[in-house]
Amino acid sequence: MSIDPVVAFFLLGLLGGRMGSDLKLSSGLYDTLTIYLLLAIGLKGGFELAQSSVGALVIPVLVVVAASAVTPVLAYQVLRRGGKLAHPDAASISAHYGSVSVVTYAVGSTYLAQQAVDHDGYMSIFLVFLEFPAIIIGALLARGMKRDTEWRELAKEVLFGKAIVLLLGALVIGWVWGREGAASLIPFFEGLFKGFLALFLLGMGVMAANRLEDLKRVGGFLIAFGILMPLLSAVGGVLVGWGLGLG
Question: Where are the transmembrane segments (predicted)?
Fold first, then answer.
């Protein structure tokens, strides 16, 4: 089949959850899997960066940062004006659309590799630069631009968050040591990657099953927004990537 079997583990978790199974992943295991995926993706980006020209990535990174900042603002306006959502709800939801889920990226890149679609491996670098603008904009949308805004605390919260620390740290390690220097890590971070991803998706499926009832409460607008916003953002991302000449 053309569909990667790793996706079937999400469906397994979803089905098990809906059938009332006691299947679940402990919070400790879930955190461990998250850390593993972040480190693995960061390392891969570092390996690719070691073989690429850093200067050639400056403009794409700046565009990515701009897109990460603009997208939540647009989403916020749609949610406030179109959906009539309360300010805190609109701010918290819109912040999610400035970045990319590490699992979404992992599944997408795995699928491209399975289909033998050539793509630049340093795309994982953009995960880091997508993360912090989205968090900052989301926080500003929620709190508002005030004179007493604690910029130092906000910067600390963003820059030292788990995702940024792990992605950026692993990226630097992969960049400095390169694939040859870190050869002993490759069997663990690449050879076992899909297995750990399958476990993570299994847990995600169970959580999704437990939240399906929420769809009845959010209303048609939020359901439509949740489907269309990622699709429209993806189209915009494809056009921007094409304009930048990315593979």
Answer: 30-47, 54-79, 121-142, 154-178, 184-209, 221-244
CA–CA separation, 34 and 130 (whole Å): 17
How crowded is the C-beta side of 225, counted as CA atoms within 13 Å? Answer: 24
Residue 237 lies in a domain: yes
Residue 79 per-residue DSSP state: I
pTM: 0.83
pLDDT, tens digit only, all 247 positions of the chain: 567 788 899 999 999 999 989 888 899 999 999 999 999 988 988 998 888 887 878 888 898 888 888 999 999 999 999 888 888 888 888 888 887 888 888 888 878 877 777 777 677 778 777 877 877 787 788 776 566 667 777 777 777 888 889 988 999 999 999 999 999 999 999 999 999 999 999 999 999 998 888 777 777 888 899 999 999 998 988 898 888 877 6
CB neighbours of residue 188 within 10 Å = 14
Residue 177, domain extent: 29-244
DSSP-based three-state secondary structure for 227:
helix
The answer as to whether 38 is a domain residue is yes
Closest CA to 131 of 185, 186, 85, 65: 65
- Look at the chain and report how many structural domains it folds into: 1
